[in-house]
């Protein structure tokens, strides 16, 4: 049912993924209950376990295919500008510029945070001494071989 709704564009991909997980979970519960009731040497139990592995494998394939299909459709949807008017295209361009500026601002904030984290790391490692005004300043040169600059402290 979920697959039919997705194909008809009335369902969600996430619903199909959840259904696949539920099928695998129900199968696992069936196997667990059967292990309790069946004899360990039962042929039917062995067949049930084999079928359970197949169900899990197929459910994983459905999830992978669903995610792949979803990504392909999203890529197609985001890159198709052929049906847009000049005004709508300009509006999309402006909205994208706003998103870019927001992301750049966030990126700059994270870079500042990274710098502060590195200063704190150096202070804790003894590479920097905290000044009275709160600013970090270089400490006296460490003795050879004691402290090295951590690899994460290098600029990207």
From TrEMBL:
Q: Which residues form a coiled coil?
A: 84-120
List keywords of the entry alphabetically: Coiled coil, Cytoplasm
The GO annotation for biological process reads: actin filament organization; clathrin coat assembly; endocytosis
Keyword Metal-binding attributed? no
PROSITE patterns named among the record's database cross-references? I_LWEQ
Task: Report the domain of life of the source organism.
Answer: Eukaryota
Q: Does the keyword Coiled coil apply?
A: yes
Q: Which Pfam families match?
A: I_LWEQ (PF01608)
Gene Ontology molecular functions: actin filament binding; clathrin adaptor activity; clathrin light chain binding; phosphatidylinositol-3,4-bisphosphate binding; phosphatidylinositol-3,5-bisphosphate binding
Where are the stretches annotated Disordered?
Answer: 130-156
- Tell me which InterPro entries the record gives: I/LWEQ_dom_sf (IPR035964), ILWEQ_dom (IPR002558), Sla2_fam (IPR030224)
The protein here is known as HIP1R protein
């Amino acid at each position: 049912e979920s697959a039919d709704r997705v194909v008809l564009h009335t369902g969600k991909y996430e619903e199909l993924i959840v259904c696949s997980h539920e099928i695998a979970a129900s199968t696992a519960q069936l196997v667990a209950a059967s292990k309790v009731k069946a004899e360990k040497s039962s042929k039917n139990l062995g067949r049930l376990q084999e079928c359970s592995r197949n169900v899990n494998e197929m459910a994983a394939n459905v999830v992978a295919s669903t995610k792949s299909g979803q990504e392909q459709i999203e890529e197609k949807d985001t890159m198709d500008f052929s049906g847009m008017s000049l005004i709508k295209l300009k509006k999309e361009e402006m909205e994208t510029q706003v998103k870019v500026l927001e992301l750049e601002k966030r990126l700059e904030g994270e870079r500042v945070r990274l710098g502060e984290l590195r200063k704190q790391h150096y202070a804790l490692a003894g590479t920097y001494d905290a000044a009275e005004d709160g600013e970090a300043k270089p400490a006296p040169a460490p003795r050879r071989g004691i402290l090295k600059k951590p690899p994460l402290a290098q600029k990207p």
